[in-house]
């Protein structure tokens, strides 16, 4: 059986290979919890959406909460002007999908860089070491 890496050429969305180095700069912030193969699998299974431009990329997912659905931009990297343009496309798509709005998981600067966004939470990560793993 071939690995996902072996099959990437046949299942990758347009722009994937060209923008993979850009996407990798965003994957650093997942602290190893998500790999490029994971993202590709999620896209191909319909659990994530891939938004490529010339030099930038975003990845979204729909998050269903008890009282509504939000579109989450959880990976984004590249040129700010292109990412602003992508956000407009995502916003229109999210409305058509019935979302209440968009949330961004990313560095603090995104709320300042994109009009209409306000910081509402901080995500802090504590990874368990080997001594804490089973406790």
The CATH topology assignment is: Aminopeptidase
| End-to-end gap | 37 Å
Mean pLDDT, nearest integer? 90
Shape: globular
How many distinct beta strands? 4
The assigned structural class equals: alpha+beta
The number of helical runs is 5
CATH superfamily: Gcn5-related N-acetyltransferase (GNAT)
The CATH top-level class label = Alpha Beta
Largest sheet: 4 strands, mixed
Low-pLDDT segments? none
Structural account:
The chain is of the alpha+beta class and 135 residues long. The chain has one domain (4-113): Aminopeptidase (3-Layer(aba) Sandwich), CATH 3.40.630. The protein contains five helices and four strands. Strand 2 and strand 3 (68-77) form a beta hairpin. Helix 1 crosses helix 3 (36-45). The longest helix is centred in the middle third of the chain and has 17 residues, at 80-96. 20% of the residues are buried. The model has no long low-confidence stretch (mean pLDDT 90).
Topology:
Layout: H1 4-11, H2 16-27, H3 36-45, E1 49-52, E2 57-65, E3 68-77, H4 80-96, E4 101-104, H5 109-113
Parallel strand pairs: 3-4
Antiparallel strand pairs: 1-2, 2-3
Helix pairs in contact: 1-3
């Amino acid at each position: 059986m071939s690995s996902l890496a072996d099959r990437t050429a046949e299942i990758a969305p347009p722009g994937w290979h060209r923008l993979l180095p850009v996407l990798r700069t965003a994957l650093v912030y997942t602290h190893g919890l998500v790999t490029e193969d994971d993202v590709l699998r999620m896209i191909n299974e319909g659990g994530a959406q891939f938004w490529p431009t010339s030099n930038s990329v975003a990845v979204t997912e729909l998050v269903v909460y008890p009282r509504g659905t939000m579109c989450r931009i959880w990976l984004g990297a590249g040129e700010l002007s292109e990412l602003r343009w992508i956000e407009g496309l995502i916003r229109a798509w999210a409305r058509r999908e019935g979302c209440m709005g968009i949330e961004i998981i990313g560095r603090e600067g995104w709320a300042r860089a994109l009009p209409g966004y306000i910081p509402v939470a901080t995500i802090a990560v504590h990874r368990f070491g080997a001594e804490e793993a089973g406790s």
